[in-house]
Amino acid sequence: MTGGSEYQFSVWVGSDDVTDDYAQFEVQFLDDGTLIGDGMIDSGEFQPEDHTEPVQFTESTVAPPDADEAVIRIKLINGGDFGLDRPLLWADQVQFQEFSDAPTTFDVDGVETGIEQTLEPDWTLFDDEFGEDEDDRGFDDDAVITHFGGGDLGGSVTDNDAGETAELAGGDLQVNADGTFSLTNPTQTGTFEFDYRLGLEGDHDDATVTIDVYDHELENPLCEEWDGTQQDQPVGWEGVDISCLDLEALPFGETDHTAVGERSFTDNYINLDDEVDTEQTVHVVGGETYTVSGQYGTDAAEYSGTVEFEYLDSDGNVIAEEGFTLENLQSESSTDFDRFTEVTDAPDDAKRATLRLTVVRPSGHEDPAGVYFDDLSIEAGDSGEDPVNARDVTTEVGIYHAFEPSDTLFDDWGNGVDELGTPDATLVNFGGGDLSGSATDYEPGDSVSFAGGTLTVEDDGSFSLEEPTEVGTHAFEYKIENEHDSSTATVEIWVRDSTLLDADCDPNEFDAWVDVSPGNGNLGCIDPQRSGPVDPNGEQSPPVGSYAIGDRGGDGYDAVGEQTVPVRDGYTYELAGFVGTEATPEDSYVTLEVDYLDEAGTELGVSEGDDVDLSEMRSEGTTEFDAFSDTTVPPEDATHATVRVFINSADEMDLGGDAYARAYVDDLSFELLGISPEANDVDGLEVGVDDTLATSLLEGHSTGADGVSLYRVTDSNEWERLPTRTRRPIPGSPKPTTPERSEPTTRPTVLTTKAKSRWVTVLTTTAKPGRPTIPTAFQDSVRWLASSPSSSHSPSRVCDPRQAKPDANEAVDGMAATPAA
Fold first, then answer.
1. What are 22-39's pLDDT values in tens digits?
2. Which of 395, 490, 532, 817 fits a disulfide with 769 by CB distance 3.0 to 4.6 angstroms?
3. Distance between CA 494 and CA 470 in Å, rounded?
4. Residue 383 in contact with residue 341, Cβ under 8 Å?
């Protein structure tokens, strides 16, 4: 109690008969256990005058300032009739209350109900049924609920007056002034909260009410949660003799059965009773149909399992002759589980249902029972009516990338989510398509060669494709199945490289570029020579076809588009194409950019030397496009590159009317060239006196292997070392002539070699007779592979500089001077 506050003591006294018996009431105050002489109450001898009318004793006092406890003492005294063994009177409704107008509330937590049921308890929000204590409603319990709201009702506690109805959990919540409340027909499961306000003469206090709405779903159906006791008893289930145990490490005996998850339900071998069980009670809706399913396994013929399903009414009583009982459950195999599935109709008066699992051991047997339960479920409806439908999957992955999506094959890849039925279907097989054979050739968990990489598919629909190397669309099928039905769908995976799509403009197929233009500008395919009052009316002739990428809006705003392609970090890529501009406007231009992204889509920084420099480009003439190119190297962790095209309109252009930028790009490419060379020091080599050391300086010793340079041979016999930052046309090379508009322009061929080759291999498609001139610095590191158009570049003769070294410019026997050589 509080020192210095005023308190009232009251008690009702009654008697069976008027005698000399009396009651005496005392109130004393303490300070840290020591009696204080002030403020005491002493009723003296108190008795009712009429035994048929109880009398209330009431007295008030002010507690001493230093008081922290009060002792209330009740004496019922025999007044002289010592022939009786007790006083003939009683005391009731004893109260010791502080005079205060401010009410005090306590939160209400742990209230639960079932979906589509009515919660209307016989206790009030003032009681301590689910609260820390009873609400203090003032001296004479005059405080009442004035408002309720907030929490999952939204708004504040004062939004609803007492007595009104508000929607909670999909049902109707009513809170009354006297603390009674009801929640009718909730349709949503979960935990829901609201606040109520207790008010008295201008003072108030608020409290929160928490209600859990449950349905028929089981808690912990796979025995994946257990308590911290030595027995590892399953959370959510009642019964001490069943535990969640790892079947691969049983504390007693061994079994060949395997748990669906980490553990299964089984006898913990604590009690040697003939039967041990565990159970869980869920909420159900009367009149509804439910499918109860689960798996069971047994090790020996002497032991079995029993499954019971009982319905309960609103008072918790079992409804007779309803539900089901499955006895003598024994699996056909000592390694595989069998499944039980029962369809049952809840009686109209059912409110809950109990699922009970029993392990049965023959009388007299004391060894572990070897009976296991797993993967239990209670589903609404008849599972036999639930369809099983697999949906086709279409996706893409970059060449040499690792593809491990978080979504499974069962998720929505554009054609909808798979319908798994009841119980849930699992993936049972895959195959067919580019895997050849049928959809049943491979089992979950198998890893097979697919698209040049490794494909793995699991029974839960998860899958991965590691480092595919074959560009193109590749397909396989997968089959899902439950005990009622099965379905098969096709998975198509597009393995793509850095090739840009829609690089040559076709007005009817220009979907690969994402228009990110500011303002009203837009990127698209346009004919530079299209004529009309507000058309380009230009002279430029695109190198491929009649259309080029440009500003098709003609309203003076910039046109910007971008496309994202997969890349490999550390490799060199070339961004190339053709640019064309008209005489006017003089200030318009084309800029190309490349941004790199990691697997999460985060933009990565790139050094200036590894970035492209293709900004503010214009063509020299107004009738022919000029070629351009530059190289770039993706930074570490880059998985994708975004190639962005800017068609920049002149600043002084008037908006509206004839305001085309008249700047174009065409025949764009973003191609992989190779890896930049990197030499490593060689140490640790030893050779004995008079011995010979034969080794390679390129192969790895203690510091790693060297890389290999790549070179380009052009039609002008010029050599370039790659990667270099160069713009087309190459200095000194002849300018390509502009062909008819229907003929493509051929650019110089980029020559590549295997990354770990000791020698630079040159495959050239130069049309000049003989061979290009080899600079002296390269003569010892080049070999020629002669080929003919029909040999698919298969070498017919190799000139190896490790043998005799011919003059680089001399003809080599067997080297045919053909355009394909």
1. 899 999 999 999 999 888
2. 817
3. 10
4. yes
For 609, the 3-state DSSP assignment is helix
| SS3 assignment, position 781 | helix
Structure tokens belonging to residue 689: 């006196």
Residue in 368, 309, 366, 304 with CA at minimum distance from that of residue 338: 304
The per-residue DSSP string of 158-195 comes to TSEETT-EEEETTEEEEE-TTS-EEEE-----EEEEEE
- Spatial neighbors of 83 by CB under 8 A, at least 6 apart, are none
Q: Is the peptide bond before 444 cis (omega within 30 degrees of 0)?
A: no
Q: What one-character DSSP code corresponds to residue 288? A: -
Tens digits of residue pLDDT in 487-534? 999 999 999 999 999 888 888 888 889 999 886 668 889 899 987 766
pTM over 0.70: no
Residue 87 has pLDDT above 80, yes or no: no
Find the angle CA(768)-CA(781)-CA(716) to the nearest 5 degrees.
25
Residue 717 has pLDDT above 60, yes or no: no
Please give the single-letter amino acid code of residue 640: H
Radius of gyration of the chain (CA): 44
Single-letter code of the amino acid located at 481: E
35's enclosing H/E stretch is strand 34-42
pLDDT of 383 above 90:
no
- Residue 392 burial (C-beta neighbours within 10 Å; 0-12, 13-18, 19+): middle
Residues 669 and 576 sit within 8 Å (Cβ to Cβ): yes
First CA to last CA across the chain, in angstroms? 106
Cite the DSSP H helix spans in 633-686: none
User: How many whole angstroms separate alpha carbon 324 and alpha carbon 43?
Assistant: 66
Q: What is the DSSP string of 571-591?
A: EEEEEEEEEEE-SSSTT-EEE
Position 594 pLDDT exceeds 70: yes
pLDDT of residue 682: 81
Using DSSP bridges, classify how beta strands 571-581 and 34-42 pair: parallel, antiparallel or unpaired. Answer: unpaired
Q: How far apart are CA 605 and CA 632, in angstroms?
A: 13
**Sheet strands side by side (includes 6-15):** 55-62, 6-15, 89-98
DSSP SS3 for 61: strand
Please count the residues of the chain.
Answer: 821
Taking every pair of Cα atoms in the chain, the longest distance, rounded to a whole number of angstroms, is: 146
DSSP, res 738 = P
Among 136-145, 374-383, 562-571, 678-687, top mean pLDDT goes to: 562-571
Question: Can you tell me the distance from the alpha carbon of 291 to that of 317, in angstroms, rounded to the nearest whole number?
Answer: 22
Reported as a single tens digit per residue, the pLDDT across 120-133 is 999 999 999 998 88
Query: Rounded to whole angstroms, how far apart are CA atoms 734 and 749?
Result: 14
